[in-house]
């Protein structure tokens, strides 16, 4: 996988040459997905990080891998993105101690806590030493991702003394009171805790505590065969099954050098876009439910049910599960079914437009949506806010455009930029993206070539990074296969990044607007907690 | 101006929905009969995610869309466990949710029923025997009925609730 720097330098290789310098370009290796890996020592890492931040790189992930670098047991991989190029700094950590970069890259705050919980890595200079994944019942000094720990049931603490309870940020001042919500909510949604500090009706601070549904996905994947791990990838988040399986399969295909047949990529892309349609329809319906506009909401939930039924007709699963597999798709979708889908999509577009015009001509809805829950544009880069949430705040980010995969280089999504950043902007962006997905599906069906749908090339050992655009934004996964088994499956969904956007979007709004702000981002708890 | 009386006697302007699902209608009618007889015409369900991947939540929510609209059969999803007859639990119970699951159950008045929906809730599913979960819901609460599926479809959930109603009549 060692490569020479290409003729036309990308932002990552330029940074390797100019920021790291010395023998770094010679030591850089290129991954099969085009990402650059550079090993860095402590001093050059600490010197380079601020400079890389100044070059407008975004820290899109940080994770720990055991047994990756020869010189030490743990390696931290800092995945940095800039203009479609990816730089991975590989820091071999000695003695389980690393330097925190959270003040330079705020998007490192959660991942650093995650590395501490998972592997026992300590971070010097960090302001937050609370556990993240592992709540109070877990024993102290328990690190599940440590290879020495064999995945098995553990003994937890039944009684948690008050002194060991999770400390939320204390907010004090005249008239400040707290509203504690969750983990069990009033509606049928996933568990999470929201701690509002409120003055009168206005939220003054919101702190979110997640990871209630921490199911140990990454440890579960360890030691599984790559085929068995497809089921694990599907379980990361139910409504993102296709996106997460696609990224997992892409990573395995890249590290093994498997070429996916063209027809399979067309089918995969149709599935990805159908999943986006389901998700966006649910969000549009949900936002309208949360402002008590039942007429609009039921229009979209009816359409969504119809898409679910179409999914079942096409694939046997309402969530499109069991289709995407390593090397392609598990079975073909016949021509007449696809023609039927094209017809269905045409009908869907018409009926969606009817629903949309009702909503957009209802002043009470616009009044609730407009100026509510603003995500500021300046937060996008530091927090790696992604997907429709970023695109509604003026961000021009979309993995399908930035790192085209499959057939997205030929079937390019179209975005109309909106910069308001409020609930209305997110509602509008999702409506446009829904219509754009329908266009993409129609174009894909019209152009789909005949041919095989699965490659039977074998899986090899190696590692690779893969990014896909799920309905919620950029999903990342990094897979390492060793002796034919999964050695490390790191997955980071868009929700993981965007939860922090909510903490910034809610203050200044009234508590009663929290549900609609939350729904407008529609984040997956399962996909965050894993 | 619409004459209110003519609305009563005239033929309805709305058509029957072409996508009416016979299976759901039949299940619904049957479940309504059971609920009418045993639960005073209203069955209150509190949904609880104990560590699910959210697919089951989506299907349970779908029960309220216009295609199923289960409220017409007497089924209501309630906001508080204090109002609930049934606790509908999804997901393998995680260590991080264990306390919340127990507290939610304890907050319900008697008589109360527990239904585990989805493969993970039934027996731990793919997470069985791993560090982060206790296993199926039965590891924490007395389960009256399991509804397998990954995730169970709205029709399967409805069929499960019907079985629960019939069984409740026999045993309590």
Write up this protein.
The complex is a heterodimer of chains A (530) and B (172). Chain A has helices at residues 11-20, 24-27, 42-54, 109-119, 217-221, 226-234, 241-256, 262-290, 294-315, 335-360, 363-369, 380-383, 387-391, 399-402, 423-447, 494-505, 514-521, 526-529; strands spanning 29-30, 36-40, 58-66, 74-82, 85-93, 97-99, 122-124, 176-181, 193-199, 202-209, 324-325, 328-329, 462-470, 473-482, 485-492. Helix content of chain A is 40%, strand content 17%. Chain A has 18 helices and 15 strands. In chain A, the strands form 5 sheets. Chain A has a 5-stranded mixed beta sheet. Chain A folds into 3 domains: 11-124, Beta Polymerase, domain 2, CATH 3.30.460; 167-209, no CATH class; 217-329 and 336-529, Orthogonal Bundle (Cytochrome-c3 Hydrogenase, chain B). Chain A has 530 residues and is α+β, with helices and mostly antiparallel strands. The model of chain A is unreliable at 1-6 (pLDDT under 50). In chain A, a hairpin with a 2-residue loop joins strand 4 and strand 5. With 172 residues, chain B is of the alpha/beta class. Chain B has a single domain (21-165), classed as Rossmann fold. In chain B, 37% of the residues lie in helices and 16% in strands. Chain B is built from 6 helices and 7 strands, in the order ααβαβββαβαββα. In chain B, the strands form 2 sheets. A 5-stranded parallel beta sheet of chain B has the order 2-1-3-5-7, with helices on both faces. A two-stranded antiparallel ribbon of chain B has the order 4-6. In chain B, helix 2 (22-38) packs parallel to helix 6. The longest helix of chain B has 18 residues, at 154-171. The N and C termini of chain B lie far apart (54 Å). At the A-B interface, helix 9 and helix 18 of A face strand 1, helix 3 and helix 4 of B.
């Amino acid at each position: 996988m060692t490569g020479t720097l290409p003729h036309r330098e990308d932002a990552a290789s330029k940074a390797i040459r100019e920021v790291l310098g010395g023998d770094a370009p010679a030591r850089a290796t290129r991954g099969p997905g085009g990402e650059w890996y550079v090993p860095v020592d402590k001093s050059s890492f600490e010197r380079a990080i601020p400079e890389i931040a100044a070059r407008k790189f975004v820290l899109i992930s940080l994770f720990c891998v055991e047994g990756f670098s020869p010189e030490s047991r743990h390696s931290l991989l800092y995945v940095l993105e800039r203009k479609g190029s990816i730089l991975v700094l590989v820091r071999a950590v000695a003695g389980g101690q690393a330097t925190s970069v959270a003040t330079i890259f705020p998007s490192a705050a959660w991942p650093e806590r995650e590395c501490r919980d998972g592997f026992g890595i300590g971070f010097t200079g960090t302001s937050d030493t609370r556990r993240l994944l592992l709540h109070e019942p877990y024993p102290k000094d328990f690190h599940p991702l440590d290879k020495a720990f064999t995945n098995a049931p553990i003994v937890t603490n039944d009684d948690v003394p008050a002194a060991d309870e999770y400390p939320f940020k204390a907010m004090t001042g005249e008239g400040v009171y707290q509203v504690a919500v969750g983990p069990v909510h009033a509606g049928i949604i996933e568990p999470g805790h929201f701690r509002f500090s409120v003055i009168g009706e206005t939220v003054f601070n919101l702190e979110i505590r997640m990871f209630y549904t921490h199911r140990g996905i990454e440890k579960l994947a360890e030691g599984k065969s790559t085929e068995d791990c497809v089921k694990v990838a599907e379980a990361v988040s139910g409504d993102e099954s296709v996106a997460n399986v696609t990224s997992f399969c892409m990573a395995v295909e890249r590290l093994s050098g498997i070429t996916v047949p063209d027809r399979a990529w067309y089918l995969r892309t149709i599935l990805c876009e159908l999943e986006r349609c389901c998700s966006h329809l649910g969000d549009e319906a949900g936002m309208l439910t949360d402002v008590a506009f039942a007429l609009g909401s039921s229009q979209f939930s009816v359409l969504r049910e119809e898409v679910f039924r179409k999914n079942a007709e096409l694939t046997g699963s309402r969530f499109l599960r069991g289709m995407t597999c390593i090397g392609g798709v598990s079975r073909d979708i016949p021509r007449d079914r696809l023609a039927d889908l094209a017809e269905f999509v045409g009908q869907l577009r018409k009926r969606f437009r009817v629903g949309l015009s009702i909503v957009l001509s209802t002043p009470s809805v616009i009044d609730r949506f407009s100026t509510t829950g603003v995500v500021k544009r300046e937060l996008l880069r530091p927090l790696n806010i992604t997907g429709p949430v970023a695109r509604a705040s003026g961000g021009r980010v979309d993995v399908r455009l930035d790192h085209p995969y499959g057939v997205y280089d030929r079937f390019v999504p179209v975005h109309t930029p909106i910069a308001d950043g409020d609930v209305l902007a997110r509602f509008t962006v999702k409506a446009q993206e829904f219509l754009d997905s329908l266009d993409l599906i129609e174009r894909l069906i019209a152009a789909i070539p005949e041919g095989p749908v699965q490659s039977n090339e074998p899986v090899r050992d190696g590692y690779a990074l893969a990014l896909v655009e799920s309905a919620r934004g950029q999903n990342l996964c990094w897979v390492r296969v060793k002796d034919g088994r999964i050695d490390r499956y790191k997955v980071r969904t868009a929700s993981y990044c965007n939860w922090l956007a909510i903490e910034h979007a809610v203050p200044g709004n009234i508590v009663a607007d929290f549900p609609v702000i939350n729904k407008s981002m529609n984040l997956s708890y399962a996909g965050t907690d894993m | 101006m619409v004459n209110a009386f003519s609305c009563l006697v005239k033929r309805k302007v709305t058509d029957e929905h072409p996508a009416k699902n016979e299976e759901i209608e039949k299940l619904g009618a049957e479940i309504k009969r059971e609920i009418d007889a045993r639960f005073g015409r209203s069955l209150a369900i509190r949904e609880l995610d104990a560590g699910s991947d959210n697919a089951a939540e989506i299907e349970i929510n779908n029960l309220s869309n216009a295609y199923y609209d289960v409220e017409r059969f007497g089924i209501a999803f309630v906001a508080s466990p204090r109002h609930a007859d049934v606790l509908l639990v999804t997901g393998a119970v995680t260590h991080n949710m264990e306390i919340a699951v127990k507290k939610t159950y304890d907050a319900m008045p008697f008589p109360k029923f527990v239904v585990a929906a989805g493969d993970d809730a039934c027996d731990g599913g793919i997470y069985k025997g791993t560090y982060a979960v206790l296993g199926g819901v039965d590891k924490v609460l007395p389960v009256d009925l399991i509804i397998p599926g990954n995730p169970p479809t709205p029709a399967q959930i409805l069929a499960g609730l019907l079985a629960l109603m019939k069984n409740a009549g026999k045993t309590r």
